[in-house]
Amino acid sequence: MLDITQFNNILDELHANSAEIEASAIITDDGMMMASHLPVAVNEERISAMSAALLSVSERMIETLLGNKSERVIVQSKAGYVIVSATAKNLLLTVMACPSAKLGMVFHDINKTSQSVQELLNGQMA
């Protein structure tokens, strides 16, 4: 059985290794929060639902326009970035990065975190 604290440990490692990532969450593709490092004032249910909807709509758009599958969605504002990435089967990773973030490094950290999630799931299924 999957222990949700293991997802929290993965997010702990993400934040320990990347000062540019200010918040993060692991969410199911139907919008259920599995683990998060979000500010206290943030409504987790809303973030998880919006993240799942954003990735779903972007996947349909990319498939329609380019005939391919999207890897991530990037929303940029003056306050920073929100990046939603497909992580593993039925899971996604949402991160909030500061406005001065070096996106290449953030993507690298997202990829490492996605790999950790995938390894956790593969270990649980074995």
Describe the structure.
- The chain is an alpha+beta fold and 126 residues long.
- The protein has one domain (4-125): Beta-Lactamase, CATH 3.30.450.30.
- Helix content is 48%, strand content 28%.
- The protein is built from 3 helices and 5 strands.
- A 5-stranded antiparallel sheet has the order 2-1-5-4-3.
- The longest helix is centred in the middle third of the chain and has 23 residues, at 44-66.
- InterPro entries: Roadblock/LAMTOR2_dom (IPR004942).
- This is Roadblock/LC7 domain-containing protein.
- Residues 8-97 form the Roadblock/LAMTOR2 domain.
- It holds the Pfam family Robl_LC7.
Strand order of the largest sheet: 2-1-5-4-3
**What order do the SSEs take from the amino end to the carboxyl end, as H and E?**
HEEHEEEH
The count of β-strands is 5
Give the CATH level 1 class: Alpha Beta
Sheet with most strands:
5 strands, antiparallel
The CATH homologous superfamily corresponds to Dynein light chain 2a, cytoplasmic
Taking Cα atoms only, what radius of gyration do you get, to the nearest Å?
14 Å
Mean pLDDT across all amino acids: 92
Per CATH, which architecture?
A: 2-Layer Sandwich
Task: Count every helix, treating DSSP H or I runs of 4 or more residues as helices.
Answer: 3
When the domains are counted, the total is: 1
Question: Terminal Cα separation, in Å?
Answer: 11 Å
Identify low-pLDDT runs. Answer: none
CATH topology description: Beta-Lactamase
Instruction: Please give the share of residues in helix.
Output: 40-55%
Instruction: Using the alpha-carbon principal axes, give the shape.
Output: globular
Computed structural class: alpha+beta
Organism: Moraxella nonliquefaciens
Domain Roadblock/LAMTOR2: 8-97
Pfam family, one: Robl_LC7
Protein name: Roadblock/LC7 domain-containing protein
